[in-house]
């Protein structure tokens, strides 16, 4: 069987992998489609090894086989891949912090004992069955394959719930930013403003519910004195961490959502003077997948406008390279590994 993997710096290879089989605790999923994530692009551009288990983690599919002791899914079920429920046994769970369950976390980052040797850029994959969530029947295949990044955005918003009287800013309108602004609207934010240098992405932000979409230069003028109540930092580059703090009001909140590679330079004087609250959001929780699928099903989170195109496995290396060279060339590309 063929699978797509990052095998080195700026090297994406279609490799031969063994046919996945059912074993204890695992399910085999026939992959319908898989999204290209910004994490995949970070791995492609990095000089460090990229964990093959997460190279293609935004996938949906159909259960082709499942270990006999598994009860929550069965063969033929449509599923999305997410995170397992908390185990209830690790120190974090026993300490009342089940949101930080190590069993679930290790599965999400592909470091668990059941981690697959490749991700969803393959026709089939065998993985921990507890990570699979039944797909809401109202969702199309492409919509189901965008549930995972939408849940990342939803989790971030749940970490710092906006209020109806607040002006909320989303900095960076890649896929996570565009999903975050919709989740903020769904959560009851009073007004959501998108900051994005790319004109096409500003248009996309307005199309999916931003009240305004402005450039970084306009944002500096707009928020230089008054400041925003809450900023979701979704650009994921080191300089925007400080710029987000620069744009909040005194006592405001910055939520770091985008993954910035490298070291960021900050101005501690600004953080201290503003008594800034800076938090971060990573991943999601098991129950949030069903919440997000309901939001997509009833139209409060729109994912179809984010889907630019679908490519085959053979076309995937070129698509990865193009996105790495110009991240603004597309919002969300899906891969059909069976095409």
Specify the number of helices: 12
CATH class annotation of the largest domain:
Alpha Beta
Question: So what's the overall shape?
Answer: globular
- Find the count of extended strands (DSSP E, 2+ residues): 15
Characterize the biggest β-sheet. 7 strands, mixed
Low-confidence stretches: none
Q: Provide the CATH topology of the largest domain.
A: Quinone Oxidoreductase, Chain A, domain 1
What is the correct CATH architecture of the largest domain? Alpha-Beta Complex
User: What is the CA-based Rg, rounded?
Assistant: 20 Å
Topology overview:
Blueprint: E1 2-8, E2 11-16, E3 26-35, H1 38-45, E4 58-66, E5 78-81, H2 91-94, H3 102-108, E6 124-128, E7 132-134, H4 141-144, H5 147-159, E8 167-171, H6 175-186, E9 191-195, H7 199-207, E10 212-214, H8 216-223, E11 228-233, H9 239-247, E12 248-256, H10 268-274, E13 277-280, H11 288-297, E14 307-312, H12 316-325, E15 332-336
Parallel strand pairs: 8-9, 8-11, 9-10, 11-12, 12-13, 14-15
Antiparallel strand pairs: 1-2, 3-4, 3-6, 3-15, 4-5, 5-7
Helix pairs in contact: 1-12, 5-6, 5-11
